[in-house]
Structure formats: C-alpha cells, structure tokens
Amino acid sequence: MKVVLSWLKDFVDIRLSPVELARKLTMIGLEVEEIQLIGLAPDDDGSHDFKVIGLSWDPERVVVAQIDEIMPHPNADRLVLCRLQDGTQEHIVLTGAPNLFEYRGKGQLTPPLKVAYAKEGARIYDGHQEGQVLTTLKRAKIRGVDSYSMVCSEKELGISEEHEGILLFDAAAPTGMSLAEYMGDAVFDVNILPNMIRNASMLGIARELAAVTGEKLRKPDMNYTAAGADMADKAKIVIREPELNPRFVLGMISGVEARPSPLKVQNRLRLAGMRPINSVVDATNYVMLEIGQPLHAFDYDVLLQRAHGQPPTILTRRAAPGEKLTTLDGEERTLNDFSVLVCDEAGSLSIAGVMGGQESEVTPHTHTVLLEGAAWNYMNIRRTITAQHFTSEAAFRFSRGIHPAMASEGVRLGLKYMLEWSGGEIAQGLIDNYPLPYADPTIPISEMDVRRNLGVTLTALQIAGLLEGLEFACQVDGQTVYATAPAHRIDIGEGLIGRADLLEEIARMVGYDNIPATRLRDVLPVQHGNPALEKEQRIRETLAGLGLMEVINYRLTTPEREARILPEGSPTTDLPYVRLANPMTPERAAMRRSLLASVVETAERNIRLSERVAMFELGPVFLPELGDHLPAEPRRLAVVMSGLRQLPSWDTRSKTQLDFYDLKGIIEALLDELHLPKVRYAPAESASFHPGKCAGVYSGETLLGTFGELHPRVKENYDFLAAPVLAAELDLDAIMAAIPPYYISARVPTLPPILEDIAVVVEEDVPNARVEEVIRMVGGKLVTAVRLFDVFRSEQIGAGKKSLAYSLTYQSPDHTLTDQEVGQTRQKIIRRLDQELGAKLRA
Predict the structure, then answer these.
(1) Whole-angstrom Cα distance, residue 130 to residue 194?
(2) What contacts 298, CB < 8 A, 6 or more positions away?
(3) Cα(772)–Cα(579) distance, integer angstroms
(4) Residue-wise pLDDT tens digits, 408-422
C-alpha cells in the first residue's frame, strides 16, 4: 500500500524525517519497502533495508509561478510563449504543453494559471526520454526564441510518468514559493500483513503513529448538513444470509455534478496509486484510502428505472448457478453459487465486496447517487476472488476482514465529500440493516502476563495507557487490565488467543528493540515421551539406512490422477473422496486416498534423472466416514523402487535390474529391525500388482500390507522406462502397533557351530516359508539359522516337484554339540517334514 506523507499529516503531527518515519513504521510491524521522495531533500544514511528514490527540487530554482498570458510562437504552431511571473521577475517561457493551447492568444488570463517553474540550472527529469533521465536546464535558442527555463509536467518533476501536459495548481497557490515547500511529499510503500488490514488506510497508519509517538490523533470530520428528503422512503434493504453480509448501509445524495475533483485530491489519489476519474467516483476511492472502508456508488435513476419508478429494494444473496454479471472492467463473469451478489428485484448489480456491475455504474450524467457501505464475510470474499481469478482494492481489504462498524462511517464521509466536491443535497438519515451485530471482545491481561511473556515490567496503568493509545477501552482492576477491542478491529480474539493478541500490541508499542534479552527462568515443563513419533522416526531412519530416500508429497490430488494406480477400466469413479470446496488449483481438488499413487507419481518424475530410484513416504490418507464431517486418516508407508540394483563404478559394470526380491529384502530388513513377531509372507492378489509377483506380509494373523511389481497395464499409465517398478503400500498404524515394547537380545556365542546342508523334494505348491517354519519348530533352540541357497527342478525328481536346499546352523549357548545330538535333531527334522509336507530327503 502507498502511504502519502502529506495525507497522514491531516490526522497526526509528524516531527520525524521520512527515513526516521519509515524506521518507526517498520518497527511496529508496518514494513516499509520503499520511500519515494517528491521534491524533498533525502536524509538517507543507508542504515536500513528499504530503498529511497526520488528527485530533490532545488528550493531556489524550482518554484510556484503564475502565467499571465499565453502567446503564439512566431515560428511554430505546436509551441506557445508564456508571459510568466516567478515572484521576483517576469520571464518569457517557451513550451509545447497541449493543455495550454486553449488559452493561446486570449490576452491577460484572469485568474492567472499557477504552474511549477524550473529556472536555468535546475535539475529535472527529461520528459522526452524513457524512464527517469536527469538533465540540467541550459540556455538555448529554439525556433529563433531564447529558452533557458521551463514549466514542468509531473514526469519532469518525478511525480509520475504523466507528461502530456504541464502541472496546473489551484489559483490560491502562492507565487514565488519553493515548490518543495508547497507540494513536497513522500510516498511510503508499506507491506500490510493480512492480520493488520486495519492499517490499509491513511487513518489506520496515523492511528499507529499517534500511539507510538504520543501525538494526538485527529479523526476526519464526518458532519454535514442533510437538507434532502427522508432516506427511509428512497429504498429498502433485504439481507438473506446475515452470516455472509452482517451489515448493509445506504445513503443518498441528489443533484450532484460529476466534475474534476480538487487538485489536492487528484494528486493524493495519483500518489496512492489510483487514477482520478471525477468528483463522485473519486470520493468513494478517497474514503477507502483515507479510513479503509470500501464504498460503492449506484446511479439511483437507473435503479428507479429498473424498479419501474418504485423505490428499489436492494437485496444481498448468493448467486444462482451459472448466473452472469458484466463488471466495471468490461468482463462478463460467470459466478459461483457461493459468491454473494448485491441485487435489486430486476437482477444483479455487483459482486459483493469485489466489483460493481456496468449497468448501474456512476457516469458523468449521474445526478443522484445511492451510496453503499457494507460488511462481508471475509472467507467468502477470498473464495470469490480465487474462483474468479481477479481482485480489486476493495476485495484486498474485504478479504482480510473489515469491522461492520466502519460501514456507516464510510457512507457518511463519502456523502460529505460528494457534497463538497460535486454539490447537491444529501438525504436525511441512512438506511442501516445490521442483523448480525459484532460483539467486540473484552480480554483481561495482567502485569504478570506481560512480565512473563515479554520480559518487560509494566504497571497496569502503563499497560492500559499503551492499549488506549490504540483506542482500546480499558478498565484497571488491581494488577489486571480489562481491554475491550475498538470498533475498527476484528483481529482481536477471545480468551488465550485474545491475550496473545494484546501482548503483541503491547510489544509493538514498547518497541521490539526495547524488549531486553533475558534468560528463561520459568520452571521447565515435565517432559513426556512420544512413543508414536519415536517409532515413526525409527522407521524413517531404518529405511534411509537401507538406501531409500524419503519424499513428502502433496496430500491434495484428483480422483483421475489416483485412478492411474489401477489398470484402465477398473471401477474407481464411485469411490468417495474428501473434496475441497475451494481448491487452489484443479489439480489439488481432493484429499488423497492412496499414498502409493503419490509416491509412484514422484518416481515417474524422477526416473529419467537417475539410473536408480528408491524412495519412501510416511503419511496419512483420507477416507470419508459415513455420518461424520471428518474423514478417517489412517497412516500408510509406501515404497517405490526401479532401475539398477547397483550403480556402476570403476570396479562394477553390472546392469542387473532391481526385482521383486530386492523389495522383499527391504521389507524384511525393516521388520527385522523393528523386531516384529511372527512375520510371514504369502501370495496375494491386487489390481495394481503383477499377477504372481505380489505378496502380502503378515505379523501373526494381522495383514501389514501388500507389495510386488506394478501390473504392466498400470505401468502403461505412467512414463516409466523398461525396468520393473517395485512398489509396496503398508499399514503404518498396524506396523507400529505390532512393534513390541521390548525384545530379548542374546550374547554373541562363544562355542563353535556345526554347519550342515540338506535338500528336500516337495510339491511345487509348498512354499519355502512353510518348510523353514517346520525346520525351526523341530530344531528348537539348537537350530540358530536356516538359509535357502538353491531351488532345483528337473525330470529326475519328478513332474510338479522341486528341490529346496538349505544350509542349517546348529549351535548351543552352553556346550559344544556332538555329532550324535546333531544327528538326532536332523532325523527329527526329516521325519516331521515328511509327515507334515510330504517332503523327501534328496539323495
């Protein structure tokens, strides 16, 4: 927001230089990013983070002058000669300013024109070059006429880029006065944070300065004489949803004449970044910039015509689906059903809090103005401008929250300015519909609260004084202050939040740089463990140690993107999703149901950047619950791997690709590290995985998840290379619930083991896990390791059969095993394998 120094001085005395003022504003939370000096001499010492730009006007060479006569140039039709007084002597000045041509040859001007005059030797900007190019005025002869000085445009003075005509002042401008003294100014570019929108106005900034400097705040005079008819008979207001429109105020002025606003008003609007239009429209913009309340002006005669001559009924409602409105910028907009409209009985008039419609806009022919001031639900305004992809100065303020009390103040001030600048007659009274009054909270705050949280010692009276400077109403009771928020702030909460808000206000007024650095002296809170977080971190560290990279994806997606994790044609369209009412982008419209889909998308984006990807993510998915507004959020663990098993190096040239068993090894290593009991694997089926290359992992009877190679038809939905894509999606909550609270560790054995290999022939459908289970069960504590090292199939052992060869390790913790003990155990194992699995010892 651009803040004009001269405008601020209407409301508070400022005794600081522009740079000192910028520092003061920044230290109370109003960060100044740039200062543009308009004619003032810089006082910049460089000890700040903001920029200081602008042109300083020489007080002796750049002054206010008066043009008494404009004469034709003897040798050029597009040039004129001005007879000019600079307060000390008369000059003949040559210029080609087109806004002076209408006075050419009319003799003595009454009253004279007041202009900005630069004498010989003055430094100004060259009005005929792009950008800001400094030049020094020197004597020259142009078309046979001496030229050594000039009357200036805004561009030449560094005020704006306007250079089509020279700058004209009011007739009361004092001839001979230094231009810097007459209209020197400074414009501060202030970054208004969302929670400080109360300061998006000159009065708001002035209020902060008055509080922090101790100067008196002068509020705008809103008194005027209302000599017109009773406003109550001119219109009606109907508010259909007060929670979206808590207040709506109307005032009226008739007999106005849309003419140029006073030059001071035009200049201030330009410096604040707005284009002057006419005295009626400028009044609404001026009020918005001055006190922060946006207004909207309707042509009342148009409303009467739409209402067939009857007093119009102004109503606020949600837009109908597909309803359209052409706004003031000429764009036809299709509205969303959550957007609020200001309407009459004939149709829509404006998008509430954002922009008016063309049909009822004020024009140079408008004679009666119906002036609107309102309060709107700021969340709804945000949704509207996001959906419509445009904003406005009004929406900037309304989307951050404006107190309903400001609506009537804005209308009254707007009517006063229209009366002063446009003439006319103000109707008596206002129509004020306020169905949802805002209750300003009262928050207690004690001396101890301030001392404990800010580290400064203040009495209750001092605390009250700081808050009263910001217009809080305070009552002191012992060491506690009860502060009621003023009627221009909705950012003050209640309870503990409100107390934190007050502490922030006190800290700003004390000055952040005045708060001492102190050591913590409070009692440390009791430290409690967080087992769930510790287990989750343990899983992260284990997977990272196994060579996987953690990724964190958006939790927002679309059903169409998640459908890629299933083969084309799978029934997915009827899956319920948690959908956002106001998504940031169409690609982030719903909460994810699958963590695996998110990680596969990330792998797809990275697969061509590396010869190997191995990544994992831990996070929630969001599953709608019937009859509940909040979804279930079970946590998942997803792993995706693809590419080379081992990256090439100087001593390794292997091009072996990762396969199913690499992923199984990662899962085995993770579950071993977590000491999950009774882990087993079993064939499984899943639409996302390759048939025959998919398995489920269990802890006891609890399914922990599914893993395998992506189905070829699923892989076609992504831009992967030829290498297999291995993926797993595990139930993180089930894994963490199965982690035992403790486990027993054994000493490193000191007695020698006995190693032995056996091979058994079993049916093709007997899994290795079942054979290992029988061996370990029979071998008991003596069999400390079982490792499958070979699988053999041939006609020699029979069709439908396979040979499984195992390396067994026998070892006792307390004595050296004998051949007889090992032999007995071995025979027991062979008999049990035969009895339970039909396994035969291979010769």
Answers:
(1) 36
(2) 349, 356, 360, 361, 362, 369, 370, 371, 372
(3) 48
(4) 999 999 999 999 999
